[in-house]
Specification:
The chain has 248 residues and is α/β, with parallel strands linked by helices. 48% of the residues lie in helices and 15% in strands.
Length: 248
């Protein structure tokens, strides 16, 4: 098992890519603390996981990712209970599709608050612990639109471009202290959100992908497992595209 005896915190872990990542980490032997926006949501996800595997080591919490104090208190409690935090996966995020001429300040702030400040807060909350351990892995969820942009909803690609810069800069700073920092940039992935998109929209998207399929949450989860594992011990400051596309 590639993550045996590791303590991992995964934000946005109750559904979609985050839930698939929790499942993958558990299969690889990690103890997982999944974060959701509400305790009820976290508890429901944990119950589902334990229904499939009663022996899995998972619990759910709901820190306010927009508040450093809330996140720090939650991470300190994890350290008190388990003695360490080996892996942080910053997966929580929000997207939207508002046209720019209809944008309101609160629309932009809502996306940046979670997608950027939430990443900062969680990473900052675990950094001292990881430095003291002399080891740790911080993984962030970026997106293909951080490179390509998208037709509307300007805040989302802006936030993911910020995540890329955050990842590269923090990797440079924390590398000498034994902490690796990487990101995964998913392409179009078949989550619950995508299931509501009409087939007339989906089929042209699939046709534009050389592999001729949408990504699955498990595709992204597998990338997180690799980057979290010792197999990636000499990889830091990378934004790994998992999007089925071909680039020069």
């Amino acid at each position: 098992m590639r993550l045996a005896n590791k303590i991992a915190v995964i934000t946005g872990g109750s559904r979609g890519i985050g839930f698939a990542t929790v499942q993958a980490f558990l299969r690889e032997g990690a103890t997982v603390i999944l974060c959701a926006s509400r305790q009820q949501t976290a508890d429901k996800a944990v119950a589902q996981l334990k229904e499939n595997d009663p022996a899995c080591r998972v619990e759910g919490i709901c820190p306010d990712l927009s508040s450093y104090e809330s996140v720090k208190n939650a991470m300190d409690e994890v350290v008190r209970k388990y003695g360490r935090i080996d892996i942080l996966v910053n997966n929580a995020g929000v997207s939207e599709q508002t046209p720019f001429d209809q944008y309101q300040e609160q629309d932009f702030d809502r996306v940046m608050e979670l997608n950027v400040k939430g990443v900062y807060n969680a990473a900052r909350a675990v950094t001292e612990t990881m430095i003291a351990q002399g080891a740790g892995v911080i993984l962030n969820t970026s997106s293909v639109v951080s490179v390509t942009g998208q037709p509307s909803g300007i805040a989302y690609p802006t936030s993911k471009f910020a995540v890329n810069g955050f990842t590269l800069s923090l990797a440079r700073e924390l590398g000498p202290k034994g902490v690796r920092v990487n990101a995964v940039a998913p392409g179009i992935t078949e989550t619950d959100m995508m299931k509501a998109v009409p087939d007339s929209v989906i089929q042209p998207l699939i046709a534009s992908i050389p592999l001729r399929r949408l990504g699955q949450p498990e595709d992204i989860a597998n990338a997180f497992v690799f980057l979290a594992s010792d197999e990636a011990s000499y990889i830091t400051g990378v934004v790994l595209n998992v999007d089925g596309l071909v680039r020069p």
